[in-house]
Amino acid sequence: MVKFGGTSLATAAQFKKAAAIVREEEARHYVVVSAPGKRNKEDIKVTDLFIKATEEGQFDSMMIKIITRFRSIVRGLGLDFDLDSEIDRIRNTYRDGAGEDYLVSRGEYLAAKIMAAYLGYDFVDAEEMILFDEKGDLQYKETVARIATVMDPHDNAVVPGFYGKDTEGRIRTFSRGGSDITGALVAAAVKGDVYENWTDVSGLLMADPGIVRNPLTVPVITYKELREITARGTEVMHEDAVYPVRKVGIPVNIRNTDKPEEAGTLIVKNADYYPSILKISGISGETGHASIMVEKDRLNADSDIRTKLLQVFAQEEITVNSMLAGVDTLNVLVDEEQVKGRKRELSEKLRTAIDADKVSITDGLATIAIVSRHMAVSPGVSVRILTALAAEQINVKLLDYGVDGISMLIGIEENNFREAIKAIYSEFVKK
Q1: Which of 127, 130, 200, 381 could staple 7 via S-S, CB 3.0–4.6 A?
Q2: Do β-strands 407-413 and 398-401 pair in parallel, antiparallel, or remain unpaired?
Q3: Is 295 exposed, middle or buried (0-12, 13-18, 19+ CB in 10 A)?
Q4: Protein fold of 2-200
Q5: 279 or 13: which carries more pLDDT confidence?
Q6: pTM of this prediction?
Q7: pLDDT recorded at residue 312
């Protein structure tokens, strides 16, 4: 089961690269595609053109741009493909009230139609298999069962990602990047040996390339590690795409369409059988955090106090990112934007709620998450992280070990953010 992202299908040349990858290995039976992405930094993704087409007065002008993009791809592939008939069908169906999700999903639909024609594979429409309820929530069990039934007669097929159909027969879409989910669902349903996710990067990088120059690719990472690192800002796959393949234990291989010779990153349920060169699996971080410190005698001994504090955060619509407890203190990490201009008011509400001795709010913090499946069994990993920071005279304001023993969250001042990531990376990736 292979999935190609938008950058892998942005032009006819990219379509040819993707098709060559599929043809290179006979075991690649099923293909899921995204809509064509950007051809360059100034370009607009096809999906964004369709979104603009839903705006008042924009339909005709955006459709011209969309037709031009797809016509260029069809001509570049030398295909005898009736694009005009497909566009007419889309235009008429939308004008008959098919809804915005229908129109926004047509980039994937057309890309899949074209890829199927170019490969000589069957086209299987996602609306036949991806099932949503009336609220737009995925019906997981029903979808996997339906995919297995629909795909069974097809030895080789192309499926558009990103959308399906609800119980009322209307097209529904996932959130952006949802083609990853479609690919994972198909992989799970057909019991694939591997789910290859082809994109514009050679796997998961150990650190942000905007901070660390030419960071190494992580060769192997577990599902749990991936979940931890994506929750802290690293974007590789859609978060919900991990669940279907993790549930049935199918490995995910993130590969680069432009560099198919590179192995990429393998995401597995259990990495015990793979040689481990690197002691960490990734470094991820975010700026723009604030720390709320609540102090009260024997605070941690009274569960009602925590409940009251959380009720205040809920009432104020403030999301709690992390919570650390001491004997008499509770340190809550939140997004800085959520407390901006409200520090005095929020402090008073928290103090009043539990008759706290003191409430202090500190902003300008950054968090760095280090993920490592070795952390729980090798104390040297944590020591090396803190030693690397100390060598750069970076003070740790907050420290939290994940409950699974595979991650470590560090809070520091924002002005030390980039240097801290460089220091940790350098400690584990030495010449």
Answers
A1: 200
A2: antiparallel
A3: middle
A4: Carbamate kinase (3.40.1160)
A5: 13
A6: 0.83
A7: 93
